[in-house]
Amino acid sequence: MAKKMNSEVLGVVENMAYYQCLECGHKDYIFGENGGESLATSMQSELLGKLPLVSELRHRSDRVKACSQTSWACPEEGQSGKPMIFDEPEADISQEFFNIAKRLAEKAAGFDENIEPLKLKMEVE
Questions:
Q1: Which helix (H) or strand (E) holds 28?
Q2: At 122, is the secondary structure helix, strand, or coil?
Q3: Mind listing the pLDDT tens digit for each residue in 63-89?
Q4: Backbone angles phi, psi at 48, to 5 degrees
Q5: How big is the chain by its Cα radius of gyration, in Å?
Q6: Contacts of 60 (CB under 8 A, 6+ apart)
Q7: Greater confidence, 116 or 37?
Q8: Residues β-bridged to residue 47
Q9: CB–CB of 35/24 below 8 Å?
Q10: Considering only CA atoms, which of 88, 90, 116, 91 is closest in space to residue 102?
Q11: What would the DSSP string read from start to end of 53-121?
Q12: Which element (helix H / strand E) includes 37?
């Protein structure tokens, strides 16, 4: 699609790259391994990151979306109602999102090693 639109591809993010067992840490590449890397290579681009299947992220994202469509807050017990990356910035999935965002920002800005890196700041109202 990007080529048809004559748009530059800044990078590839492989979504649902694998499922990681919560008990033992084993990674199961449900849809095959290295698909994002292959796509990035074929597009003469780079792989910005791999996002795993994380059921908690999906559940909380769905919950936030449902809450945002109402005028009342509806977080579950122990949750703020904010996206997971705000509540748990130290979580592996949150860190991967931050790393992808940083790489994408660097690519979009024509990253120069002599320029101070972009500082990411998140705020939720």
A1: strand 27-28
A2: coil
A3: 655 555 554 455 565 556 677 788 888
A4: -85, -25
A5: 17
A6: 79, 83, 84, 87
A7: 37
A8: 12
A9: no
A10: 116
A11: B-HHHHHHHHHHHHHHTSSS--PPTT--SS-HHHH-TTSHHHHHHHHHHHHHHHHHTT--TTSPPPPP-
A12: helix 35-42
Q: Which of 86, 70, 87 is nearest to 78 (CA)?
A: 87
SS3 (DSSP) at 3: coil
Residues facing residue 28 across a β-bridge:
19
How many of the other CB atoms lie within 10 Å of CB of 30? Answer: 12
pTM recorded for the entire structure: 0.69
In DSSP terms, 13 is beta-bridged to: 49
The label of the residue with tokens 């591809």 reads 9
Predicted pLDDT of residue 38: 94
Tell me the residue type at 103: R
Q: Do 96 and 104 touch, CB atoms closer than 8 A?
A: no
What are the tens digits of pLDDT across the range 36-62? 999 999 988 999 999 999 887 777 766
Distances (CA, A) of 11 to 24, 31, 87: 31, 20, 27
Distance CA 49, CA 15 (A): 9
